[in-house]
Amino acid sequence: MGFLQHPLCRHSQQQQQKSYDHYHSESSTSSSLHSQPSLPSVPSLSSLTPQQPHHLQQQPQTTVKIHSSPISSLVLDGKLLYSAASSGEVKTCSRDPFILQTNTTTNTNVVVVETTNAPIKSLIVFHDTLFTAHQDHKIRVWKTDQPTKCIATLPTLHDRFSKLFSSKNYVEVRRHKKRTWVHHVDAVSTLALSHDGSLLYSASWDRTFKIWRTSDFKCLESVKNAHEDAINSLVLSNDGAVYTGSADTKIKMWKKREGEKKHSLVATLEKHKSAVNALALSADGSVLYSGACDRSILVWERDENDDNNMVVVGALRGHTKAILCLVVMADLVCSGSADNSVRVWRKEIEKGYSCLAVLEGHRRPVKCLAMAVDSNSGGPDEDDRSYLVYSAGLDCDIKVWQIRVPSVSL
């Protein structure tokens, strides 16, 4: 099955509906991933321009070819790398680049974890459980016992049946058509898991996000009309805040107010002028990064006067096309783009960021990233640190990059 067009850089729900009518071709991919004008009103935080060379390694350590269709999600768990593709397959292999390099042609360490007929948009791994979000509006839950088995499809039969007989459980999904509120009615674009693994959050092109209890997979809450267009990204903060990024150009912050059982909108962050495709949070939740079709990564920091608000402090610029994915680890931010490249940024001790490396090698847009400390080359507390960056996208390749981060001179 082909790779269904993503509502990137599009703004109207009518245009989004057209994506059901055709799959990606070379030309449609290019047109759907084009970039919008940048944001001249937001100051740049990065100290290096794209033309300035940098001494860090910029060639992939290895390239892994285990999928024949575009890759939508990468997850690191233990010693394994999980990858999900638009074909509906999830595969796993060793995360060790040396093992990958040795077996890159034979794929002897690759295991097909699951196969479905529905393209996968997002993947989460928690202990021995996998959660996959699909183009067919469903979420599937898998146990990784051998052989892997699907233990639930959300919404569950029990959830659907229990909502059938009361009119208050129905919401209008389009003219003259209603569904119960536990259903997503468009592609499920992204998943997030609470820190303790007890709650699963899902967001969809249907403009809603939902919250599921993982003990019995019951849908506890659905926030309808959360945005005016497709929701492309959702991230969680440890303080309970939920951030959603949408094709309507907005980022929204949601929380449960004291004494309330449901999430409510507490802030709307409006600086992007085109579709927001990716969000990432710092470990302490104080910094939010957002990537959009305007080619900029905006950096938001917690408002000193209001814990329920974030203020933009600047932008990271250098990509020449839409930002499609972000990942944060320690003081590093990695961004993947429709310009086929990955950039690595470091937050400096004082205000500002430096662009450490431009990773070029992909032949098509970079759709997903994962990052880990390079265990073979020291840890994050040493002066000279080394990280492994895993990237994948529409060219069906997984690339592994070693990033050496020089010590900071105080």
List keywords for this structure.
Methylamine Dehydrogenase, Chain H, mainly beta, 4-stranded antiparallel sheet, 410 residues, disordered N terminus, 4 helices, globular, 30 strands
Question: What do these coordinates show?
Answer:
It is a single chain. The chain is mainly beta. The chain has one domain (about 15-55, about 65-330, about 345-355): 7 Propeller (Methylamine Dehydrogenase, Chain H), CATH 2.130.10.10. It is about 5% helix and about 45% strand. It has 4 helices and 30 strands. It has helices at about 15-20, 25-30, 95-100, 155-160, and strands spanning about 60-65, 70-75, 80-85, 90-95, 110-115, 120-125, 130-135, 140-145, 150-155, 170-175, 175-180, 190-195, 200-205, 210-215, 220-225, 230-235, 240-245, 250-255, 265-270, 275-280, 285-290, 295-305, 305-315, 325-330, 330-335, 340-345, 355-360, 365-375, 385-395, 400-405. The strands form 8 sheets. Strands 1-30-29-28 form a 4-stranded antiparallel beta sheet. A 4-stranded antiparallel beta sheet has the order 2-3-4-5. It has a 4-stranded antiparallel beta sheet with strand order 6-7-8-9, with no helix packed on it. A hairpin with a 4-residue loop joins strand 7 and strand 8. The radius of gyration is 20 Å and the shape is globular. The N and C termini lie far apart (about 55 Å). Residues about 1-5, about 10-30 and about 50-55 have low confidence and may be disordered.
